[in-house]
Amino acid sequence: MNITKFFLNSLPRPALIKISLWIHPIIAFLLKGHQFTDPIDGKSFRYFLPYGYGKIRYNVLSPSTLSLERHRLMWLFLKNKTDFFSAPKKVLHIAPEQCFIKLFRNQQNLDYLTTDLYSPLADVKADILNLPFDDNSFDVVFCNHVLEHIIDDKKAMSELYRVMKKGGFGIFQVPQDLSLEKTYEDFSITSPKDRAAHFGQYDHVRIYGKDYFNRLEKVGFEVYPVNLSSELSAELLNLYRLTENEIIPYCKK
Predict the structure, then answer these.
(1) Bridge-partner residues for 141, per DSSP?
(2) pLDDT tens, residue by residue, 136-147
(3) DSSP letter at 208?
(4) Pick among 3.40.50.150, 1.10.287.1080, 2.60.120.620, 3.40.50.720: CATH of 70-252
(5) What's the pTM value of the predicted model, to 2 decimals?
(6) Whole-angstrom Cα distance, residue 76 to residue 136?
(7) How far apart are the C-alpha atoms of 138 and 143, rounded to whole Å?
(8) pLDDT by residue (tens digit) across 209-236?
């Protein structure tokens, strides 16, 4: 076993998660290789880092951008299926992911604004249930892995629809179990321990099923579930460390 892998494997599991946030440039240098590639920045590594709440997933966190599977899938979708990187767009990014903020802010074609209720990374502190923006303000709205935390997700979805311009689009990724016909939620479950047991994470209030797309449609969106991974070879899925059959909820107004 090489010294880098020995060092990582010797750390407690929470430390494996935190270390990438503090010294990830050093780790990225140590892990340089040719086995796996982060499509966001094009850098390649011998392996990716582990990540997870409670249940650790191995070889999923990019050492350079700190992207996960869903981030890399979204990047490929935006790059290959939209004009996000070429046409002028006003963008609202709710709960902005660290792997995207600097890259999107530096895009000359984008008027890019971030918002979150708690994150110090956000430009505007705001509650998704009452966004402080005018109707029809944004060409693009991103809101990923947020709605599963919100009890009144219908109100949150309505706010996403309200602030989006007609003709605009959004991507609203959530943890989704496509084996469930109907979303599983029980608001009597309130303790962090019980929520983790029922919904997969201590601060989640539901697990979305196939009806997630119907929920978005009920507030007005046209929803196009995109299985981009089905268009990629097994070799590319492994190279980019993507999850097979993960769906991108691409929504238009």
Answers:
(1) 92, 170
(2) 999 999 999 999
(3) B
(4) 3.40.50.150
(5) 0.89
(6) 27
(7) 13
(8) 999 999 999 999 999 999 999 999 999 9
